[in-house]
Structures are given as C-alpha cells and as structure tokens.
Amino acid sequence: MLNWLKSPATETQITHGGRLWLYALATLIILFLVVPTLIVIPMSFSDSQYLEFPPQHWSLRWYEHYFGSDEWMRATWTSIKVAILTMVVATPVGVLAAYALHTAKMPVVRLAFVLLITPMMVPLVLVAVGAFYVYVKLNILYTVTGLVLAHTVLAMPLVVIVIGSAFKTFDMAQENAARSLGAPRWKAFLTVTLPQIRFAVVTAALLSFLTSFDEVVVAMFISGGDNPTLTRNMFNALRDQIDPTIASISTIMILVTTSMMVLAQVFGGNRSSE
Amino acid sequence: MAASFANGANAAGLKHDERVEKLKLFGLSAPALLIVFVVLVIPVGWLFYLSFIGADGTFSLENYARMIDRSSYRRIFLMTFEVSVLTTALTILIGYPMAYFLAQLPNRLASIFMIAVLLPFWTSLLVRTYAWLVLLQKQGLINQWAIALGLWDEPIKMVHDLNGTLIGMVHIMLPFLILPTYGAMKSIDRDLMKAASNLGASPKHAFWTVFFPLTIPGLFAGALMVFILCLGFYVTPAVLGGGKVIMVSMKIVSNIEMFVNWGAASALGVVLLIMTMIILWVASKFLNLDRIAGGGH
C-alpha cells in the first residue's frame, strides 16, 4: 500500500515519503525564519506598556512616541543621511575597484581583492575600536564624515563582489568593440558596459545603503555626540529594557527594507524582459 | 635582419605600453584601497602596536601573559568557540534541508519561497534580535502558546542565556548558509542523478554518493562564513545572552568602556583576528576564497 512513498519522486532522487518529510520540515523552517520578523508588526500597534500578542487594545501611541521624540527623529535623520552618503561613495568607488580588478590582469590583483573583502572577515568590534582610536587623532569622531568612511569600508566588499560577478558574466568583447570603433575607455564603459550591469549596480547600491543603515557595532563607538545613529540608540534602549517604541521603529524599518527589496525585484524584472 | 630588429623593438614597445595600460587600469582601484587603508589597515596596525604596550607605557607582553594566566580569559575564548561551533552546526542542520527544499522546487516556486530566506536577510539585525527577545521572554508568545497547548505548565526562562543566544544567532546566520548551499545544489547537472538511478542506485544511495558530495563546496563555504561571523559577533549575544554569554568581542568592548584598558582590549582583538585569519588560511587550502565571498550576499 505505502510502497509509493518509497518510490523516487524527482530526478534529484528523493522518494515520495522523503518529500513529505522535507515539506513538513521546510514549513517549520520557513515559520522559524519569517514569524519572528513579522510578529513585531502587530505588537507595535498595542496600547500596552508591555509587548503583547495579539494586542488587547490597538493604538498608535508608540508611533506617536517615536515621531514625537526629538531624540529618535534626530537619530533617524543621521542614519538616513549617513546611509545615503555611504551608498553614494561606496557604489562608484567599489565599481571602479571591481572594474580595475577585472581588467588589469596582474598578479597584484589577487592581493588587492583579498584586501578589499577583508572588512567582511575582520570582527566588527576590531574595526569599531580601531576606527575610534584613529578618529580621535584625525578629529573626526562623532562626525558624519567619519561614519560614512567606516560604513563605506564595510559596504565596499559587497559592491566589489556583486559587481565583480556581474563582470564575469559580461562579455568584455563588447566594450572592446566600442573602443576599437574609437570610443575612449571611459565612454565605452559608460555607454556599453554600465547599462548592461546596471541591475548589479542597483543591487550593490541598495546593499551599501542597508549595510550602513543597519550597522550597530561600529556606530556604537564612532557615532554619538550630536550624531548618534538610529541603531546606536536602539541598541542602548534594548540593553536597558524592552521599550515598545522599538517595535514601531522595527515595523517602519521592515517596511522600508521590504520596499527596497521590491524595488530591486522590479529592476531585476526589467532586465529579464529585455 | 633590420626588419626583425625593428619588430623586436616594436614588440618591446607594445609590451611596455601594455604594462602601462594595466597599471593605469589597476590605479582605478586606488580610492577603494585608500579607504581600506585609512579605516582598516592603519587602525588594526595601531591596535597591534597597542597590544604590546604595558600599563607603564613601555614595551611589554603583559597583555598577552594575562590572557594565558587568567582562567576567565580562557573561559571567554572557550565560550566564543562553543557558541560559534554550536551555531554553525545548528545552522547546517536547519539550512541544508531548507536549501534542498528550495533546490528541488521549480524555479518560479523556489523564488517565492526564497522570500522566506531573504526577508530576514534584509531585515535589520537589531529588529530580529529584538523580536526574539520579545518572543522568548517569560511572558512571551512562545511560553503563552506552549502553556495553552499544554506543552509545559509554567513559563520557562528561554532568554538571557545560552539557548536564547543560540536561537537568535542561528536565525541571523541561516541565510549565509542557505544561499551558497542552494547555489551549489542548483549548479549540479541533473543528468548525474538520472544516471545514478539508471545504474540502479536507490534514491538514498544516489543522494549520499552523488548529490551530497557535489554540494559540499557550497555548504563548506557557507559554514565557514557563518563560523567566522560568529567568532566576532557582538549584538545578539549582548542582548540575548543577558550577561551569561560572554564572547571575546564583548570582553573587548567592556575592557574599553568600563576599564579603559586599551592594551588588554587590543591584545584580545589581535588574538581574535589571528584566529580568524588562520581559519581562513586553512580553509583557503581546500576552497577558493571567492566562493566564501560569494556567500555574503
């Protein structure tokens, strides 16, 4: 009777029975992945001092508290400003570097690549502590400039990797053809290459924005004074007690990142329809 | 004779031009490298220097000696390794079936379920840590539901300890494992599995002898990324560990914030960094580093 459970279901060699188990397991894993992220949203609309689900009384008081607080608002603007500037700096600098590594076929390229992706591997606390020490000497501690510089270092590996893999699938012969027809290199790059890797560029830009916006550990050390970031304030609030304001901020952040994801998908969709 | 000589000179000239061209191209990476130097290389070099300066301001190894002498420091390193190993193991156990689930779906369906992996990936680390704090606390949702379902009678303490930390960290690390493993699975030639079954392999046999070995590079890359990220992790253990889970990175911060002891903090940082680099170096013997880097997005 149950023999069909043991027969192969797919060419990836899973049995029907195995697939039942897999689907049950996958459902649990998906719940594990998604529920904790989404549960914050309804909780943020609660009237209670304590976080409850489902909320007994709905209210916007924690949103009012957030938008009404000068401190939270200032921190939010600092975070947005720093994230946009990081995106504006890290994307072109990273694209240039990825282009250099792709086209200059020299032994030193390998070393440069490793150096550029090192910030992903180095414990963040070290970057934070080190940057703090150097920023004191450079007199840029607690400044937007200092934050942008540090966040650019953290975002650049992602840009270099995303753009680098786009170059790998891009046929450089096209750019060379443009150049052999008389276009200078920069013009060939801007008019032939860049339009074709633009999806990767948008992805890289979004990743740099999010890297900066979401960064906590480095910001703990080098943001402060007049320029604390949102995450720095959130982390401090979390360490002390569970403040429902954080739930409303979290909800807004989820909305912002999800819409950015949709944005990225829209750009990706355009590419595949071409 | 004359013609070939001219050719030779020309070739040398071309070679020279080519080298200049390559150097110019390489020069385009200068801004990126400069930023890495200012914000990463110089500061870490500075910390390295500081770690050899004793309390009296002269060269000394006392910061490193302290690490060897004091059992509290040894415990912190052991704890860091324990948390990292456990998180990586759990992430593999949960992430591999999930990647397999995605890989055997048709592409269109897979991209829908992929949202489940990407949503947390794109959601703030703090938001997710916060969510777990809320879910796992004594009056939290998990306790409420478990009691309602009769799983246990009284609220259980699940947060502010190792368990809470592990749950939060696994949740944060899963995408880093699933994405490269899924990539490895998708790139496997499907005909291989057909061939295996044509040759009489049972599904189980074909899975373990053909499919699984081919996914190891992706799995390994993901696991390595997870392990390295765990070693230097700060936020989640600081919030969910409730002071019971002390990782090296937390000790570095407290050494500076509470004791203003830069020497001790730097020495801890240097040891942590060297450990990370050794692990990466050993791993690079088995694995192309580009693959690890590819796991980061």
TrEMBL record, chain A:
A cellular component term, taken from the record's GO annotations: plasma membrane
InterPro entries named in the record: MetI-like, MetI-like_sf
Lineage: superkingdom: Bacteria
Membrane topology type: Multi-pass membrane protein
Bilayer-crossing regions: 20-45, 82-101, 113-134, 140-167, 188-210, 246-268
Residues forming coiled coils: none
Cellular location(s): Cell inner membrane; Cell membrane
Biological processes per GO annotation: transmembrane transport
Keywords: Cell inner membrane, Cell membrane, Membrane, Transmembrane, Transmembrane helix, Transport
Chief localisation class: membrane
Residue ranges annotated for the ABC transmembrane type-1 domain, each copy included: 76-264
PANTHER family found in the cross-reference section: INNER MEMBRANE ABC TRANSPORTER PERMEASE PROTEIN YDCV
Name of the protein this chain belongs to: ABC transporter permease
Source species: Martelella endophytica
TrEMBL record, chain B:
Ranges in a coiled coil: none
Bilayer topology term: Multi-pass membrane protein
Entry GO terms, CC: plasma membrane
Keywords, comma-separated and alphabetical: Cell membrane, Membrane, Transmembrane, Transmembrane helix, Transport
Alphabetical list of InterPro entries matching this protein: MetI-like, MetI-like_sf
TM region positions: 32-55, 76-103, 109-127, 164-185, 206-239, 259-283
Keyword Transport annotated: yes
GO biological process: transmembrane transport
Recorded superkingdom: Bacteria
Compartments reported by the entry: Cell membrane
Domain ABC transmembrane type-1 stretches: 77-283
Primary localisation category: membrane
Pfam families from the UniProt entry: BPD_transp_1
Keyword Membrane: yes
UniProt xrefs under PANTHER family: ABC TRANSPORTER PERMEASE PROTEIN, INNER MEMBRANE ABC TRANSPORTER PERMEASE PROTEIN YDCU-RELATED-RELATED
Assigned protein family: Belongs to the binding-protein-dependent transport system permease family. CysTW subfamily.
Protein name as catalogued: ABC transporter permease
Lineage: Bacteria, Pseudomonadati, Pseudomonadota, Alphaproteobacteria, Hyphomicrobiales
